[in-house]
Structures are given as structure tokens and as C-alpha cells.
């Protein structure tokens, strides 16, 4: 089945997609992510930590007080997740190259296979990976983070797991939106409408790749280190497939 002929591309009307796209862009704007990131809770409790202005949050890729555990020291269950992330990065790089190609030449049949490959990989690999984390790792990790004070200090304790689960939902939603944008751009007969939808698809595609990269960084450099600290080897052994 060709990408442009997939019946899923008709799931959203043009107006609905554009409205949803704008909402998603606002939801995951990176400065907001930096400002509300609950994984920085430990840093907030350190009195000697530099204070950041809400109007100038620190770079999400250089969070304070992060001490990643070396790969060789973490449990094989976490090692498997890290290795899967490496393959995801390769797919993201290929997808980014496709976005650049589309930006330069537009959507045509030559990119059909590349787009289809990425979205099939997302459905078959990334979603499965996320489900494994949500089923085996996140429940116990969330419990241990709360028990050890690794959470926000609002009315309801918010942990790193809440942020990661939110990332999973947002990436799933964005992937569906981007898929439908590109499919619609290949089907619209009006040139102006096609270009508008194509531009929105490119923008949301960039947001999707950036969110996935940031999500992987958070897990590899912050969350898995916390899991290594608070979860026992025997408990990890039970998580293995």
C-alpha cells in the first residue's frame, strides 16, 4: 500500500489537524518543558544550586546534578532499553533527512518508502518499547521515587515517571498527526492548501524528533540512573522478558 493511498490519512479533517497541530506545538515548547521538568526536583532541594529565572530556564540537555551510571554497571534490563534507544536515534536521523528532502523538493512518491519505514518502525518498535517500560519499569520506579523524596512538592507528588509517561502520549499523538499531514499533502489538489499542510507537517515532524531525542536523553542520563539506585537486581531480574 502506498503511503498516500493509506485510508488512515483520511482520519482527520484539514481544520481539525491544523487546530490540533497548533495545540501540540504549544504543549511541548521546549522552554516550558525545561521549566516544569520534575526530574530536576533534586536540584531544587540543593540550597547551593544556582537559581534560574523562569524566563531563562537551563538547557534541557544539560540538567544540573546529573550523574549517569556507566552502561556496564546497570542491569541487563536497562542495558536492553539503552541499546534500543540507539536504534531509535538512527531512525530519527533518517527521518530528519527525509524532512529536509521534503522541505527542498516537496512530497512525492520518492519519499513514500522512507516515510512508511519511519512510521512502521514507530508503530512496531517505539510503541512496543514504551509499553515495556510502562508495564515493567515505571510502576515500581514511580513508587520508589516517591518513597525516596524524588518528586515535586505540590499537592500531588509528581515524579520523573509522570513526565516520561506524558512524553509517550505526546509522541504517539504527534506521530499520528504528522502521518496524516503528509498523507493529506499528497492528496490535496489545491496547491496553496497542499503547501500549508506540508509546512505544518514539517514543523510537527521536527517537534516529534526533538521530543523523542529529549525523551531518550532523560531516560539514558537521568531516569535509568535513578532506577539503578532504587531498584534491586532481583526486582530487575523479574522484569526481564
Present the secondary structure layout.
Blueprint: H1 14-27, H2 30-36, H3 41-44, H4 76-105, H5 112-147, H6 160-185, H7 191-230, H8 233-239
Helix pairs in contact: 1-6, 1-7, 4-5, 4-7, 5-6, 6-7
Keywords:
single chain, 241 residues, mainly alpha, Four Helix Bundle (Hemerythrin (Met), subunit A), 8 helices
Describe this structure in words.
The structure is a single chain. With 241 residues, the protein is mostly helical. The protein has a domain at 77-241: Four Helix Bundle (Hemerythrin (Met), subunit A). 68% of the residues lie in helices and 0% in strands. The chain contains eight helices and no strands. Helix 5 (112-147) runs antiparallel to helix 6. The model is unreliable at 7-58 (pLDDT under 50).
Give the helix level as a range of percent: 55-70%
Largest beta-sheet details:
none
* Beta-strand content bin: under 5%
Q: What is the level 1 CATH name of the domain at 77-241?
A: Mainly Alpha
Overall pLDDT: 80
Structure class: mainly alpha
Shape: elongated
Gap between N and C termini, in Å? 33 Å
- Total helix count? 8
User: How large, in whole angstroms, is the Cα Rg?
Assistant: 20 Å
Per CATH, which architecture of the domain at 77-241?
Up-down Bundle
Low-confidence stretches: 7-58
CATH superfamily of the domain at 77-241: nmb1532 protein domain like
Which sequence of SSEs, written as H and E, runs from N to C? Answer: HHHHHHHH
Number of strands: 0
CATH-defined fold name of the domain at 77-241: Four Helix Bundle (Hemerythrin (Met), subunit A)
Amino acid at each position: 500500500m502506498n503511503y498516500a493511498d493509506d485510508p488512515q490519512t483520511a482520519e482527520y479533517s484539514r481544520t481539525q489537524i491544523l487546530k490540533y497541530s497548533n495545540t501540540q506545538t504549544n504543549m511541548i515548547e521546549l522552554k516550558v518543558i525545561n521549566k516544569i521538568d520534575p526530574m530536576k526536583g533534586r536540584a531544587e532541594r540543593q540550597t547551593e544550586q544556582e537559581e534560574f529565572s523562569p524566563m531563562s530556564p537551563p538547557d534541557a540537555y544539560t540538567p544540573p546534578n546529573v550523574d549517569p551510571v556507566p552502561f556496564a554497571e546497570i542491569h541487563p534490563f536497562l542495558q536492553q532499553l539503552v541499546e534500543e534507544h540507539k536504534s531509535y536515534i538512527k531512525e530519527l536521523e533518517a527521518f530528519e533527512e527525509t524532512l529536509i528532502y521534503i522541505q527542498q523538493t516537496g512530497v512525492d512518491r520518492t519519499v513514500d518508502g522512507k516515510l512508511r519505514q519511519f512510521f512502521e518502525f514507530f508503530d512496531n518498535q517505539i510503541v512496543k518499547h514504551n509499553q515495556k517500560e510502562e508495564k515493567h519499569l515505571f510502576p515500581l520506579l514511580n513508587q520508589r521515587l516517591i518513597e525516596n523524596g524524588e518528586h515535586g512538592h505540590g499537592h500531588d507528588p509528581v515524579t520523573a515517571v509522570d513526565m516520561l509517561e506524558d512524553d509517550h502520549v505526546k509522541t504517539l499523538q504527534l506521530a499520528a498527526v504528522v502521518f496524516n499531514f503528509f498523507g493529506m499533502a499528497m492528496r490535496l489538489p489545491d496547491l496553496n492548501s497542499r503547501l500549508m499542510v506540508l509546512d505544518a507537517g514539517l514543523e510537527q515532524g521536527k517537534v516529534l524528533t526533538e521530543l523523542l531525542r529529549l525523551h531518550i536523553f532523560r531516560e539514558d542520563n537521568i531516569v535509568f540512573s535513578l532506577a539503578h539506585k532504587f531498584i534491586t537486581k532481583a526486582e530487575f531480574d523479574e522484569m526481564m522478558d
